[in-house]
Amino acid sequence: MCKLCDLKTGIWSSRRAFLRVAGASVSASAMAPVLAQVEVGKSSQFRKLVSADQIEAAALQQYPQMMEQARAQRALAPDNHPQLQRLRGIAQRIIPHTAQWNSRAKQWRWEVNLIASKQINAFCMPGGKIAFYTGILDQLQLTDDEAAMVMGHEMAHALREHARERLGKTQATNLGLSLGAQLLGLGDLGNVVARLGTQLLSLKFSREDESEADLVGLELAARAAYPPQAGATLWRKMAKASGGANSANFLSTHPSGPDRVRVLESNAPRVQGLYEQARRTG
Question: How does pLDDT run across 152-210, given as a tens digit for each residue?
């Protein structure tokens, strides 16, 4: 999956208002953030084989196409949909804390949309383009705290540039010995990324990527005043849903299990202080 450009004026005005609020919150949070409390590894050098600008541009093309397709199928939630408003409210609380994990997030034009589908699914594409499917909210009966954990996890994939890393590894494999020559001037890589843009949602992240997204998402949510214990309750619900057909897509890239829950539970105390501080100051 883990897997709206030509909108009408009324829809755009509401969405711009959401983005302005998010942008203002990012600026407000830039003051002396507390250092990261969870431990994650260094970013892979494979990211350097694909530029951030190129992969974000690919997402910027694919995301509106997906939303237009959903709209054509009457599956795109309107701006006044209660569940969409709920998700955007959660995003507004988390977005101010994203730049600590990736400075580019300050310039991202964050968007959140909701698609009517029984699939248990959600994603955040490079550049901050987020979508939830109604199935993950309705079938798992997610609380706001648990929805925040999903959102933080998906944001973390984008912030830690896991898709960029995956595509970089693909480039290294496909280009082989000719890679060095192309890298001298970046050669054809821009076109390659554009062609791979349609694969952004089909990329399968590694177990390390998933663990990293769990921990970074846990911290993002805690900084936004969502209790870290919700991470474990979320994945217990995921485990119970693992046998259903509608969960196959999400759980194929986000395997649940006792190990995942244990890691989240063991890291919850690391971010408990951030959560309590956010509760006091919020």
Answer: 999 999 999 988 877 766 665 555 434 444 454 444 545 555 455 545 555 677 788 89
Clarify whether 161 is annotated catalytic.
no
| Spatial contact of 59 and 197, defined as CB atoms under 8 Å apart | yes
Helix (H) or strand (E) holding 175: helix 162-175
Q: Is the pLDDT of residue 96 over 60?
A: yes
> From the candidates 56, 111, 154, 210, which is the catalytic residue?
154
Q: Tell me if 239 is assigned to some domain.
A: yes
Nearest of 266, 138, 168 to residue 214 by alpha carbon: 266
pTM for the full predicted model: 0.77
Rounded to whole angstroms, the Cα distance separating 161 from 108 reads 13
State the angle between helix axes of 144-159 and 207-223 in degrees (0 to 180), rounded to the nearest 10.
Answer: 120
In a domain, 28, yes or no: no
Q: Is the pLDDT of residue 52 over 90?
A: no
Q: Is residue 185 part of a domain?
A: yes
Residue 198 lies in a domain: yes
Three-state SS for 183? helix
Span 12-22, mean pLDDT? Answer: 44
DSSP string for 41-95: -PPPGGGGGS-HHHHHHHHHHHHHHHHHHHHHTT-BPPTT-HHHHHHHHHHHHHG
Domain around 103: 45-281
